[in-house]
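Our consortium's second objective concerns turning raw sequence data into structural hypotheses that experimental partners can test. To show how far this objective has progressed, the report includes one record in full. It was chosen at random from the queue rather than selected for favorable results. The single chain below, 267 residues long, was entered without modification.
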Amino acid sequence: MIVTVANQKGGVGKTTTVVNLAAALADLGKSVLVVDLDPQGNATTGLGVSSRTDNPGVYDVLIEDVPVADTVVSVPESETVRLVPASLDLAGAEIELVSMVAREYRLRKALATYLEDHPTDVVLIDCPPSLGLLTLNALVAAEELLIPIQCEYYALEGLGQLIRTVDMVREHLNPSLRISSILLTMTDSRTNLSEQVADEVRAFFGDLVLDTAIPRSVRLSEAPGHGRSGVAYDQNSRGALAYRSAAEEFTHRTIDLRESASEAVQS
C-alpha cells in the first residue's frame, strides 16, 4: 500500500508523522519504505541518514530515471524500514520536471517497478509544504492520502485547495486515490483551543479523523537531532505512545481491511 502524507500548510507535522508512523508500523511487524520528497530532507536526517552525500536519491529517480532499488538505503534504527533519501538537488526538481514527458507519473512508475521485485507492506511518501509537481507525483503514485492537521488556529485554512487538487488527481490522473485518514497533531490538553479545533475537524471530516491525536511532545522534537524517530528515542513518551496507537488504528483501518477484502475476492 502506498500512502502519501500531505498538507500544503507548513509546520503541521507531516515529516514527524512519516518518520514516527514508519517506526511504529515496523514495530507492528510491517515492512516500510519511506520516500522523502521534501527538498529540506528532514525525513532523511530524522531517520539517521545524511542528505549531504553523492549517493543517488529520489531526485535521481525522478529526473535521471535511476531505479528506486539503486537508491534505497537502510535505516539505522530498524531492519524493516528502508528509505529513498532526499538530497539538496531535489530543490531544482520542480523546475526540471516541467518539461518532462508524463511528468506526473514518474514516481508512480518507478515505485511500481521497485515493488514488483521488493514486496513492501507500506510505502510512506513525505511531501513538501506545497502543491507543486513533487506533491502531484506523490498523489498520483498513492492509493491512500493521510492529512495531518495541527490543533491550532487556521487548521482548516488551505485544505479546500488540497481537497480540490485531490479531486482533480482522482478525476484525471489517479482514480484509485482516496483520503483515508486525518490525523490531529500538536494537541494540548491544557487549552480549550485544541478541543475546539478537534471538534471542528471532526465535524468537517467525520469518520476520516483517527481517534488518536498526537500531543505536543518535547521528546518528539528532540528525536530528529539524534537521527532517530520519537518512537525509538523515548519509547514511553506521550508522543511515542500516541504514534504507536495511531499506527495500530491506521493499520486496522487500511492495511488489515484491505488485505481481508483481497482475500475475500480471491476466495
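The partners drew two points from this record. The two ends are 21 Å apart (CA to CA). The CA atoms of residues 59 and 89 lie 7 Å apart. Both points have been shared with the crystallography group to help prioritize constructs.
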